[in-house]
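User: structure tokens for this one?
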Amino acid sequence: MKPIRKTPIAFACLVLTILVTLDSRAQWVQTNGPGGGTVLSLFASGKTLFAGVYSGGVFRSTNSGTTWTEANSGLTNFYVSCFAAHGTDLFAAGSLGRGICLSTDNGLTWTAIDSGLPEYAPVYALAVSDTNLLVGMGTADAPGIVYRSTNNGATWVTADAGLPPNSDVRCFAVSGTSVFAGTYGAGVFLSTNMGTSWASIDSGLTFPYVECLAISGANLFAGSGGMARFTNNGKTWTVERVGSTGYEVLSLAVSGTNIFAGTDRAGVFLSSNDGTSWTAVNSGLRSEVVNCLAASGPNLFAGTSLTGVYTTTDSGTSWIAANSGLRNATVWSIVVNDSRLFAATNNGIFASSNDGVVWMESNSGLPRFNTRSLAVSRGNLIAGTDGDGCFRSTDNGTTWIEANTGLTNRRVRSLAVKDTDIVAGTYGGGVFLSTNNGMEWTAVDSSLSNQNVCCIAVKGKNLFVGTDKGVLLWTNNGATWPAAYGMSGKVTALAVDDTNLYVGTLESRLYLLSANSGAYVSKLLDYWRPYQNFPVMALFVNEKHLFAATAFRGVIVSADNGKNWVDFGTGLGGLGYAFAVRGQNLFLGGPSGVWRRPLSEVTSIESPVFTNTHQGFQLGQNFPNPFNPATTIRYVLPARSRVTLTVFNSLGQSVSTLVNSIQDPGSHEVRFDGTGLASGVYFYRLRADERVETQRLLLVR
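Assistant:
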């Protein structure tokens, strides 16, 4: 473990900054898209459809998914993994720590009902039977894994006698007075007394890790590493593969006599013969990962990873996207061409002609939809994808054609225009140059010391390339690449003004490169020290203002080359990866779509006032997350405290104690190395005297 770095108290307790005097209503506003994102759960209640969106909370649709509106008033957890309903009462629960809520007005407002439940255990499943509400939990920090309430969550009691103590309850299915629980590690259990006691029914079940359950007639279906069927009159399971290789089944839905299975890498499968055989039904479905399914009348809905919600009215023969208003697509790049705003997202390319009021898909000709970069060259649009290379549009995004001749690496993370040339930075393949508007590409990475290109910036005749290990300067059309100017760490952002190049890193550093007698000199900006615990995700220069989007602090702005900084993140939700200006508005794209703010709100940084920015107790989300094998955890202490920072596995067992000491007030960071640990969800808990906070992290091998 690397030593802990601590921000000096002089900066943590009292920082002199220049503030903008703004109207109290001045803030960022989320535009109406682009549509998409990772959908964790779907639920139909009467004529209303609800979607639980990763980090976006709840969205509701009253017109079969044609449009969606945010429904988060009072919601305490924005990672909603499951829903349940009893009459007019709607319940929602989150998988990132405690957060069960009740709505009595069809999702318009929510009230927390988790008093008495374990504080930090994730909730994976909800079920309603008669007047009983059952909650299935993860085992970290939880003395029980199933809880029951008979009064709409006012009080809770444990209801897990007979369940193994170290297995998460991932799903429920209810049939009359019988409640089935699928566990992650111990198979399926049955209770006939509302959870007072449970008995195993996994004889013949070849996989103990159950992700989903569904009931169709007299059959119970369980999905995980295959598909299993259990009849009420039988005593063993029948296991059938879904797909030729037996895909992992993440979700199930029943519609009439049809059973649908959502898989981890092959979309949706249909069985019309009680699971004896399965057929792929994926036409129009863009994502291979289907996290959830829901049937409502003639409609079937699929919630996917990255690409939002899809619907079908013909049993999966054809799917169409249903994402209007579901504004949670991750935006990696934004450009303006011919007065239109374009956004490259994990759900394809979207365009808006009215500052984000309406976003339209612009994907015709794109084979897949994981777009990462955009550039405008001679009136044409160039798009870079993460796996399919480059595409060009000569009709302002109406259609796209492949532009990959000579491009030997198709993971195009960044694009830039240098004079009349286009430069593509790839992850793992270095830099490529096109002199004919993307028709052909030539590798220009001779002697390039790092092939992982993260970002590119053009300054006059010079081109700067940000890599995993610093910045490299393009000279002689790529014939030589000078050293990385003494920088260390992954470069995540570059921006230029008339005289300087600004460099932001994942390690929370901001560098200034300036020309000195024809050569560039690197300098770590001391003025950035108050923000040294906040990774820089994007930089942007507009006239005299330098904007920085950070991982934990939001957007800040400087009007004096980074000497003084002002908070400019009011109203902003989430991170930011890309800036753009259209007309009088500044746009920021990130994991929750595109946000907008008038440039007029940052035009007068003139009257300095002093403010005490002493912060309270805070535990930040680790970054990166997911991670492999290491990640950084940051936290803030308001006073000198006895501190412990511990990492637990999903069973609640301690796997690493990162901190156990008395620490001074201020910002701290520690690096957690997961080498030797299995992939999966872990939790880290910060305790400072009587204060306790827990966050979740995900290790992916």
